[in-house]
Amino acid sequence: MFKGIYHGKQCHAADIPAVLARAWAAGVDRIIVTGGSLKESREALEIAETDGRLFCTVGVHPTRCGEFEESGDPEGHFQALLALAKEGIEKGKVVAVGECGLDYDRLHFCPADVQKKYFEKQFELAEAVKLPMFLHMRAAGEDFCEIMTRNWDRFPGGVTHSFTDSAEDRDRLLSFEKMFIGVNGCSLKTNENLEVLRGIPVERLMIETDSPYCDIRNTHAGSQYVKSVWPSKKKEKYEPDSTVKGRNEPCLVRQVLEVVAGCKGISDIEGLSRTLYHNTCRLFFPQDIDASANAQLESGTTVQDS
């Protein structure tokens, strides 16, 4: 979509520079480009290398786990992922293993037994490169948490992103002390979703867009809290200075922040923003937290963890 292609049809010119310019202007500091397959992970690393503020993940999405066996050499496929992750780490670009996990809503793409097998395999990847995990859980809470429990000592922490499941599943995830929960527009559709969100402590929360999908729409329960708007045009009437209707993009993470603040009754939205950003750095950029702490200690100030 950021190349202007929708359902195989070219509707407008590629506009990644304009999308990024809007993101930086909106206060986005860094963007993590998600890999969902070996091929996508390679492409994500290529994109990340184009700007110092871009980073990426390496991993295989649950609906794509069939690619291990379709390759004809599952172990060789895994080794290619490992090599790519190591290359990206050396370049300072790969910050997590993922997107990996379980998705039982879309078993027509990949059966549960294959998903579970290669979800578990990717903990080996995280252990080898000592990176956190960017996780996907959809309608699979019991199996997901069982696999997490077995492998908990193999990785430094993780975030289960685009969370749309129940309060029970939320509490299962929160029982893992190194786990964060990530929310986006898909997490804020219904009043039940908002009630689940209210039970996530801000110190365990992250926000995201998951663009180009998961935008906040006027029909969503969370839309009542949205205050920020951008000019928007249909893709057929594309203008560089406008967002595209129905296509999510990084600048709109501000809207997710506003819904979280409104839903939780938090008036200090900038303070909330700093806490959520700190959570993100704790997981994906811990060296920044350490450097900041050392700098403040050297200057004689104290540091408090949010």
TrEMBL record:
Keywords of this entry: Hydrolase, Metal-binding, Nuclease
Signal peptide: none
GO MF annotation terms: 3'-5'-DNA exonuclease activity; metal ion binding
Residues reported in the UniProt entry to bind a divalent metal cation 1: E99, D210
Source domain of life: Eukaryota
GO CC terms: cytosol
Database matches in Gene3D superfamilies: Metal-dependent hydrolases
Annotated TM spans: none
Sequence positions that bind a divalent metal cation 2: H136, H161
Short name of any one Pfam family annotated for the protein: TatD_DNase
PANTHER family from the UniProt entry: DEOXYRIBONUCLEASE TATDN1 (PTHR10060:SF15), TATD FAMILY DEOXYRIBONUCLEASE (PTHR10060)
Protein family (similarity comment): Belongs to the metallo-dependent hydrolases superfamily. TatD-type hydrolase family.
Protein name per its UniProtKB record: TatD related DNase
